[in-house]
Design a protein that fits this description.
The complex is a heterodimer of chains A (150) and B (117). Chain A is an alpha+beta fold. Chain A has a single domain, classed as Beta Polymerase, domain 2, CATH 3.30.460. Helix content of chain A is 38%, strand content 25%. Chain A has a seven-stranded mixed beta sheet with strand order 3-4-5-2-1-9-8. A two-stranded antiparallel ribbon of chain A has the order 6-7. In chain A, β6 (90-91) and β7 form a beta hairpin. In chain A, α5 runs antiparallel to α6 (134-148). Chain A is globular. The N and C termini of chain A lie far apart (36 Å). Chain B has a domain at 1-39: YefM-like domain (YefM-like fold). In chain B, strands 1-2-3 form a three-stranded mixed beta sheet. The longest helix of chain B has 24 residues, at 93-116. Chain B is extended. Classes of the chains: A alpha+beta (150), B alpha+beta (117). The A-B interface holds A 15, 18-19, 21-23, 25-27, 107-110, 116, 127, 130-136, 138-140, 142-144, 147-148 and B 50, 53-54, 57-58, 62-64, 69, 72-77, 79-82, 84-86, 88-89, 93-94, 96-97, 99-100, 103-104, 107.
Chain lengths: 150, 117
Amino acid sequence: MLVDAKVEFVIVGGVAATLHGSARLTSDLDIVYGRANENIRRMVTALAPLHPYLRGAPAGLPFHLDAETLRAGLNFTLTTDAGPLDLIGEIAGGFNFEVLRKRSTVVELFGKRCRVISLDALIESKMAAGRPKDLEVIAELEAIRDEQSG
Amino acid sequence: MRSASVRDFRSRLAELLEGSEPVLVTRHGKQVAIVYPLSDPAKVPIEVRRGIVDSVARRFRVSDNPQIRSSLVERYKRDVDRTLIRENLRRSPEQRLRTLQQMQRFASEVRRAGRRR
């Protein structure tokens, strides 16, 4: 949907780890999106049919994901008809879309070409986040890198 | 799960720590702690075990120290199941994603079944 709407984004987080070969279970899709006005407008239009809503917020809040809301914030944790979705302006390590454009690879998923954060950048970002819970994730990602390099 | 007030818990400590069933501790009717006896550590939910490691690590700021951090990563690497990784690396990224989706469906079925009990 986002690809068809020509939204500029990079898959990061657990799904990116899966795409690189991780065996860990993750439940949400994290994407870093381009902050250009046109991109935000495209993303809002593409997501509208999925009824995005703030995850964990009580039902009935007057929340509407529009371009103005996205421009006013940076990171949004959403629930959608297609599952949980995190829209992230920048992840730890200073990885915004512009940086990730150069530190990502293109993979084909269900006939669409998507950008995914590179394995090295994903490890760097997890390291930069400095969260103890990520250490186990980093260990697996490094093991994947070892296996890939034989 | 067994339940005990702080006073009960104190006076029946030895008895409550028998067996492997957790004890919910309350103070003035409010839940304040869950105590897991370690007679069978495998019965402590993995999320709780991860939480313990995480909170201890935070307390001692282990992830702030690059040396400790990399030795922990090295230690965790020993426990990584490389057979799963090798299996995944033989698949295409799309197949890996399909496998994740199957796991998510399975996990959600298990959660639903747990709620129905």
